Amino acid sequence: MAYEPPVTDYDEIVENCTCAFCGCNCDDLDYLVKDGHVVGVRHACRLGASKIMEDMDQRLMVPMIRDETGELQEVDWDTALDKAAELIAGAIRPIFYGWSETSIETMKHGIRLGELVGAVLDNQATICHGPSLQAVQNAGYPIATLGEVKNRADMIVYTGSNPMNSHPRHLGRYSTFPRGWFRQRGRFDRTLITMDPKYSDTAKMSDIWIGFEQNGDYGFYNAIRAALKGKKIDQDYVSGIPKEDIMELAEAMKNVQFGALYFGLGLTHTLSKQRNIDMAIEMLTDLNEYTKWVLTPMRGHFNVNGFNIFMAFEMGFPYGVDFCRGYQRYMNGETNTIDLLTRKECDVFMVIAADPGAHYPGGAVKHLAEIPVIQVDIHWGPSTEIADVVLPGSFVGVEAAGTSYRMDGVPIYMKKAIDKPETCRDDEWIMRELLERVQKIKDQEAAVASK
Amino acid sequence: MKTITLTLKKKSQIALEFDELIPDKVFTWEKADFENYQVPVGNRRFPLTDYFDIEVEGTAENPAEVKMILDGDCGRVKYIGSKMGAGEIIVNGDADLHCGAEMEGGKITVNGHAESYAGREMKGGELEIMGNTREFCGCSYIGDWRGMSGGKIILHGSAGKQLGECLSGGEIYVGGDCDILAGIHMNKGFIQIDGDVTRWPGGQMKNGNILIKGKLGILLEGMVFDEIVKDPVIDGKSFSGKYIKYTGDLAVNGKGGLYLNAEKNREYL
């Protein structure tokens, strides 16, 4: 990596900003601002810093509507919002997807709009930590804040997760390296274990790497639980791990003072999906008979957890909430975005601060290309290519203030540091405008029907 | 006896919801009532006659005297026979999600494949599926520990993942193969699988019995070898041949029984 000299040419420093990248929500960043742009970021990881500094890269600046020739044409805000409202009001099976890269304040208007038109509200959990939420509904949620882990934990387990690449400051700021109240020597007071079929960058720096076979998670945790109950394991290898190692591991996990298990998509999206987490949570229940263990999902976007917490609080269900019958319903495989798209049920799709064009399976994107798509976002991406109405929003945590929830469920208010481009609008304003315009159309329809 | 025949004339891309068209609610309905009925589709309701031709013959005093026949591919008709208490429904084609969910009595026959959640939280009655079904057949609502608690599911084809999840009563018969985690979290009831099973039957099971006549891929470590039984009798049914009996799942101090055909699973002996 080439040497990069420190940024010295800036007008002012905005202190204590919150990073709008991953679920760590690091709230100790300093932005170096020059001419109304962030030119440098202190304390952030490379992922967070590059996202914040390159906010003008491929930026969506003006509202656009796709014309008959298939090209996006620049229009004014009124035309774009009216077109979007008309599409939403006329939809039979609309989906509002995304929300994870915007603020809770925006979601507030989104829920009201969803309830008004009878839409499905879903967020990125449907393709990442949805199975974790299902397992939590089955087996409970032995969670602790990241601060508690920092001060107390002497064993950290990462399973199906590679934070060195995905959450670079997680080890450094919260779990492994920092010196905590009861862990004065930091890294030296902690044992780091990685359970992952891949010898990942996190595995390379761990004390112990357990490379069980792919899709073997459920059988592996079941064997640890059997060992914890005192059974002498019969099979020589369980999920590719020798039985002696499993029994030794179970013994080691029993004899720590405070253990913390972090899991990622490696656990949620292998063969047995939610049952892996179910089993892992119940394994912690067993371990809690001997000592203290907690578990936290490694959430991806900075506010993906926020949507789930907000939705569960407001509507009783964490994601994939279907209002089509007038009341909220939730059923995996029925009210989730991917299923509705691959079954070709959805007829209008609104994406708010997400990029399904880049992340969805082929069949789902294919259907998206056939139906009207409304995009509320800040950057040009694969979703813009399939969008019919584009509404440029603003960057929460940099250009707009808002509330987000960290991976452990701690709410953090993200402050505004710079002004947004003049032609863009806040996500919250866009959502409120859409709600008002759709409400107007519905009122007119009701008035006509009553005559 | 009243026979209601619905013949599909247009398949909707957005699924229709049939939770209101069960014998318990429609036994007094005449043909005109069906023609006036608006069926939920997405966030609207549309006339049932847009999608089905309707024939009504005879009269019924109570739901038990109703026979509903759905002709055509009902692969986009959800909640067929959901919460029904009596009568009979015959689907001559595929059925969509939640076929026979929460049913309490009567009989549903699907002469085709059924989607996921067939017989979810079933309390009684009989659900017979001639084809295959997908995930979560006879399961619970997400997060609940009580799944299907009574009645019988007869599945002639193969079952998907997590068959009989949280089963707390009743009986499931699978003629074909079964995917992972059959009988996960089950605490009562009986599952019989005639075909092969891929992995991990009886994960986290507390009680109840699972009998597998075919070959098993991977067994869980939580299953503790008990004995080899000849011609076992389970819940009053006798099965001929030698079976390996396991008790589990140890992880939840379970007392459930897993019977594996000894002939086909010699490597576990």
Q: Would you mind describing this structure in some detail?
A:
The complex is a heterodimer of chains A (451) and B (269). Chain A is of the alpha/beta class and 451 residues long. Chain A has two domains: 64-127 and 302-398 and 422-450, Rossmann fold (3-Layer(aba) Sandwich); 130-297, Dimethylsulfoxide Reductase, domain 2. Chain A is built from 18 helices and 20 strands. Chain A has helices at 46-53, 77-90, 104-117, 130-139, 146-152, 163-166, 169-175, 201-204, 217-228, 243-254, 265-268, 274-287, 304-315, 337-342, 356-359, 362-370, 382-386, 427-450, and strands at 12-17, 29-34, 37-42, 64-66, 72-74, 94-98, 120-123, 155-159, 191-195, 208-210, 237-238, 241-242, 258-263, 292-297, 321-322, 348-352, 373-377, 389-392, 402-405, 411-414. In chain A, the strands form five sheets. An eight-stranded mixed sheet of chain A has the order 5-4-18-17-16-6-7-15. In chain A, strands 10-9-8-13-14 form a five-stranded parallel sheet. In chain A, strands 1-2-3 form a three-stranded antiparallel sheet. In chain A, helix 17 links the parallel strand 17 and strand 18 (389-392). The mean pLDDT of chain A is 94. Chain B has 269 residues and is mostly beta strands. Chain B has one domain. Chain B is 4% helix and 36% strand. Chain B contains two helices and 21 strands. Chain B has a 13-stranded mixed sheet. A two-stranded parallel sheet of chain B has the order 2-7. Chain B has a two-stranded antiparallel ribbon with strand order 3-4. In chain B, strand 3 (38-41) and strand 4 form a beta hairpin. Chain B is elongated. Chain B starts with a strand and ends in an 8-residue tail after the last strand. The chains are: A alpha/beta (451), B mainly beta (269). The A-B interface holds A 91-94, 117-119, 134, 137-138, 218-219, 222-223, 225-226, 229, 231, 233-235, 238, 271-272, 275, 278-279, 282-283, 286, 323-325, 330-334, 343-345, 347 and B 13-15, 17, 40-44, 78, 97-98, 116-117, 135-136, 142-143, 145, 161-162, 180-181, 184-185, 199-200, 203-204, 218-222, 224-225, 249-253.
